[in-house]
Amino acid sequence: MKKTLLLLAFCIGMVSMNAQTKEDLQAQKAEKQAVADAAQAEANALQAQIDALPGWRIGAFGTIGGSISGFDNWYSQGTPNNNSGNIGVTFNGFANLIEDKFFWRNSLTANLNWVKLDNKDTDLDSDDFNPTTDVFNLSSLYGRNITKTLAASALMEYRTTLLDNFNDPGYLDIGIGATWTPIENLIVVIHPLNYNFVFADNDDIFESSLGAKIVADYTRQIGAINFKTNLSAFQSYKSGDLSNWTWTNSFGYTIWKMIGVGFDFGLRSNKQEAANFQGVSLGDADNDLQSYWTLGMSYKF
Fold this sequence. Notes:
Elements: H1 2-52, E1 55-71, E2 82-98, E3 102-119, E4 130-145, E5 150-160, E6 170-180, E7 186-199, E8 209-222, E9 225-236, E10 244-256, E11 259-270, H2 271-278, E12 290-300
Antiparallel strand pairs: 1-2, 1-12, 2-3, 3-4, 4-5, 5-6, 6-7, 7-8, 8-9, 9-10, 10-11, 11-12
């Protein structure tokens, strides 16, 4: 009986010691976490001061998505013997020079995608990866500050495809006007004097013209999240059929170190491209909304 009581007392004591030890450890952890939070807040404040200093800001992030597969005698599908694959790459980079009296903002966006479907039962199809999504955009914006949030500016923006039909069409916007920066990371460009140069083999459809250029760009990093949204619109003074706009969005979430998940999507309206694809005159074209999206692994550069 005494041995049983002693054993019971020992067990209760061990439980009490473990409970007390756990509470002590949790209290120590809370103290350390409070110190760490305070240090992180100070580090964030210092980083904000660094970011506010004149000089270059350079950064980039992107998305890589892909899959490959092979089928043999998979009779439930239309091509039971095939090799297929999908590869997509998105890149968003910027290099901005911010000074007290002027700024020079440069950005590059590319979204490239390849698809392969090799039917092993025929030699007539292609076993290569063929381009599908093909987006390239390069812009350079220079401004002289008038006030803290308003500047006189000049913009050069070039848009085309890289993998297929390079510079056919290609669009080069050159214009002057004003740039508004109401909040940090948001850039709004309004250029009432802009010429939209269009390069293409089909001169009957594609035409250059004078018009107004509007660009809105918001790029930001919040913790493990990187995102960029950009709207680029041209309104032709000659004809609404020559106007166009493109809206692109990129999101990246870092899961481990520099690797995470990325998602990109874009929308575009361009009646000249629609008419060229449909093989009709510009006035007869159905200007359906264009779109694309990419989901895959992301890498923060």
